[in-house]
Amino acid sequence: MTEPATKKPREDAAPDGEKDVIMVTGGSGLVGQAIRMYVESNKKDNEEWIYLSSKDGDLRVRSDTDAIFAKYKPTHVIHLAAKVGGLFANLAQKVCACSVVPSFFGVYLFVLRP
């Protein structure tokens, strides 16, 4: 008879006694709210979820971003923040170019410019 498999801890999990702090940018948007609903119905004791909106700071401004990270000290980030104007705004302001901007996280951001 085989022995039951033991669950291995995630490599990115917080050490014992510490919580994972998951920060969701764009937390007031459609996808951010869907994540919130899922997380609230599947709570884990070792996780703290932070949902940001544009009211918490402008992520395009380095000092705002630094202040947000200093305040919450996230272990994980789900980046969903975007400028969304709806159908009529998208029709009125067509996008014609895309710039690639290196981010201070080592990730490249694609910035759409009219």
Overall description:
The chain has one domain (20-113): NAD(P)-binding Rossmann-like Domain (Rossmann fold, 3-Layer(aba) Sandwich). 26% of the residues lie in helices and 24% in strands. It contains 3 helices and 5 strands. It has a 3-stranded parallel beta sheet, with helices on one face. Strands 4-5 form a two-stranded antiparallel ribbon. β1, α1 (30-41) and β2 (47-51) form a beta-alpha-beta unit. It is globular and about 60 Å long.
Essential attributes:
3 helices; single chain; two-stranded antiparallel ribbon; 114 residues; globular; alpha/beta; 3-stranded parallel beta sheet; Rossmann fold
Low-confidence stretches: none
Indicate the percent of residues in helices. 25-40%
The beta-strand count equals 5
Order of helices and strands: EHEHEHEE
How many individual helices? 3
Query: Shape, please?
Result: globular
Strand coverage percent: 15-25%
Distance between the termini: 65 Å
Instruction: Give the CATH H-level superfamily.
Output: NAD(P)-binding Rossmann-like Domain
Please tell me the CATH architecture by its name: 3-Layer(aba) Sandwich
Task: Describe the secondary-structure layout.
Blueprint: E1 20-25, H1 30-41, E2 47-51, H2 62-72, E3 76-79, H3 86-92, E4 97-102, E5 108-113
Parallel strand pairs: 1-2, 1-3
Antiparallel strand pairs: 4-5
